[in-house]
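User: Hello! I'm new to structural biology and keep hearing that structure can be predicted from sequence alone. Could you demonstrate with Metal-sensing transcriptional repressor? Please show me the input and the output so I can see what each looks like.

Assistant: Of course. The first part below is the input, the amino acid sequence of Metal-sensing transcriptional repressor. The second part is the output, the predicted structure written as tokens.
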Amino acid sequence: MSITSESHDNIVEIDQCCSSDGGRKSHHSDKVKNNLVTRLNRIEGQIRGIKGLIEKDTYCDDVITQIAATQSALNSVARILLEGHMKTCVLEKIQEGDTEILDEVMVTIQKLIKK
């Protein structure tokens, strides 16, 4: 199954469900993987930048602003992954009659919105 969706100014493509051969594994297209890795590389750079700001005794408010931007970027990665998961794995499990997946999704969402 291949699903394409507009998500926060990028395209999410999912080739198949996260379960295969009895195991739990993600299956993302190369385009989605590259998008996620690019975002994570940018986030990694932001974190290094924050570390540098702290080492240089940068004004706290400026550091906090950079931390907020980094958290937002990381939340975007999580949203992309969650959207793909919901549109493939969760949908497939529900169609198979496995509603226990909803408990898993609720726990995952609670982790994401926990502050």
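User: So the tokens describe the shape?

Assistant: Right, they're a compact way of writing down the 3D structure. Reading them back into a model, for example: The chain is about 65% helix and 10% strand.
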